Amino acid sequence: MNSTLIRNATIINEGKIFKGSVLIKSSYISEIYMPGKEPENLSPTSIFDANGKYLMPGVIDDHVHFRQPGLTHKADIFTESKAAVAGGITSIMDMPNTIPQTTTQHLLKEKFELGERFCLANYSFYIGATHDS
Across-strand partners of 93? Predict the structure, then answer.
């Protein structure tokens, strides 16, 4: 199983700031170690020395307007998710006010297909409501 150890990071998590290491196994955080508390028999596939760097959870932005479909002259899923990821956002939830507005299951399915093709972060999409739906 592939594993990565991020060592010597300044970790910001759950209201605390501390120096430590994080073990990642199969794309998931497996352990967080305080300084000097890593097991001696630990043999990760790769080690990243994060001395002088910060390690913190990604941010979820639950109110974005990526404007696709219909308003891509303002923004689109690819460019806006690229900007979000660059700023530390790992997950987005896009609003339904596009053209056409995302107010049916069919249009929501189409937006998920756009997300699959173009979004660089984890994504979800809201479905809107109208007087008729």
Answer: 124
Is residue 76, in this structure, part of any structural domain at all? yes
Give the pLDDT confidence of 65-118 residue by residue, as tens digits. 999 999 999 999 999 999 999 998 999 999 999 999 999 999 999 999 999 999
> Per the domain annotation, does 133 fall within a domain?
no
Range of the domain at 39: 3-55
Strand segments, DSSP code E, in the chain are 3-13, 16-25, 28-33, 46-49, 54-55, 59-64, 89-94, 122-125
Q: Is the peptide bond before 39 cis (omega within 30 degrees of 0)?
A: no
> Would you mind telling me the total number of residues written for the chain in this entry?
133
Distance CA 51, CA 37 (A): 16
Residue 94 makes CB contacts below 8 A (sequence gap 6+) with 64, 65, 66, 77, 111, 115, 123, 124, 125, 126
Let me know: does 55 contact 9? Beta carbons within 8 Å: yes
In terms of DSSP bridges, do strands 54-55 and 3-13 run parallel, antiparallel, or are they unpaired? parallel
Q: Kindly provide the residue ranges of all beta strands, DSSP E only, lying in 34-104, ordered along the sequence.
A: 46-49, 54-55, 59-64, 89-94
